Amino acid sequence: MKGIWLLLLPVIFLFSFTKEKHPYHVGSVEINYNAKSKTFEVTGRFFLDDLENALNKKYNKPFHFNDPKYKLQLDEALKNYCTEYLKLKADSKFLKINYIGYEEDSESVNVFLETEPVNMPKKVEAAVSFLYNLFDDQINIVHVILKGERKSEKLSYPNRYLFQQF
């Protein structure tokens, strides 16, 4: 009997760590130019627990996704958070970015933003630092799409700047 427990104990110990959400801190941001509306449509995708913890730390109060009573607080916090952690320039002109809303599931959150109208730019610059206030190993994969051409870049903390010429 002791032999069985000695064999099972390491297995139980190893499986006790499977509750860890994810070992990497990574998000993605897609910046897609819509020629019809002349705006950039921006979608940020992040692990739900990471974004929730970043908001908790930033604003020093609890936020809970998947809880309807926090919807208004989350909208306001995400609007402010996105304003601080995402800047966008088209042809050297800063663009106003409007918060549209968010969608969530059990593991991730999609945040939707849209810029003011701008004529088709030749160069796009962005400062993307989502979750840098929480993790010093955060990676943000940023995709810029213009005229059907996709250019992607990996931004690892502390690097937050990208420049794409089209």
Which percent bin holds the helix content? Answer: 10-25%
Strand-and-helix sequence, N→C?
Answer: HEEHHEEEEEEEE
Shape: globular
The proportion of strand residues reads 35-45%
Q: Using DSSP, what is the number of strands? A: 10
Major beta-sheet overview: 6 strands, mixed
Counting copies of identical and different chains, the oligomeric state is single chain
Kindly provide the radius of gyration, computed on alpha-carbon positions and rounded to a whole number of angstroms. Answer: 20 Å
Topology of this structure?
Layout: H1 2-15, E1 26-34, E2 39-47, H2 48-59, H3 71-85, E3 86-90, E4 93-94, E5 97-104, E6 108-115, E7 123-128, E8 139-146, E9 149-156, E10 161-165
Parallel strand pairs: 1-8
Antiparallel strand pairs: 1-2, 2-6, 3-4, 3-7, 5-6, 7-10, 8-9
Describe the structure.
The N terminus is likely disordered. Helices cover 25% and strands 41% of the residues. By secondary structure, it is an alpha+beta fold. The chain has three helices and ten strands, in the order H-E-E-H-H-E-E-E-E-E-E-E-E. The chain is globular and about 40 Å long.
Summarize the entry for a quick read:
The protein has 166 residues and is of the alpha+beta class. It is 25% helix and 41% strand. It has a six-stranded mixed sheet with strand order 5-6-2-1-8-9. Strands 4-3-7-10 form a four-stranded antiparallel sheet.
